[in-house]
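Question: Now follow the chain.
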Amino acid sequence: MPGGAGTSGSGGAGAKHGPHITPPKGQREPAPTPAEKAEATVADMTLQSPSIPTGEGGIGALPAPYPCDGANSWPALEWGGVPAGTKELILYVMNAQPVAGRLFFDWAVAGLDHASRSIEAGKLPKGAVVGTNSLGQRGYSICPPAGSAETYIFALFALPRPLSPQKGFDPRPLREEILGVSGDVGLLTAAYARE
């Protein structure tokens, strides 16, 4: 804490501590419109990844193993603050900026145990049900166009009743159903620049 006992470092007063995160290169995304801000979700649970350090403005840099230039498989995720009475957890990864005016889903997983507090990197837990992403694939894929930088939102929803979608479900109508029954969500934001 600033001015507290036990702080150290060679930067002197006012020095910032922690790893330096290089901002992604590429064309910047446009700012959200008023309509997009009105539909924004506010987090009340915690969601984090040991692989995505928090960067400037709370946006971490997605490391190379997780987008399509690497293994194209999800990082480990951890969460807390799941409300009592939760019956199902549903996880989405979406582009922060809509594509052609619509939400773009990079991954959708339902059927996560309400008592779970994490998911392993690249490994689905028992009972998980994977939806079809906006690329038409039943699975995870973060793959921005070459030469661009994009921001992604990991969103974990806690539901007071199970929705139990089928394998390959469409994440768009399910998200509408989720928002109709739950306002409990944890958010994690990460950016990736593809060369």
About this structure: Confidence is low (pLDDT under 50) at residues 1-19. The CA atoms of residues 147 and 195 lie 5 Å apart.
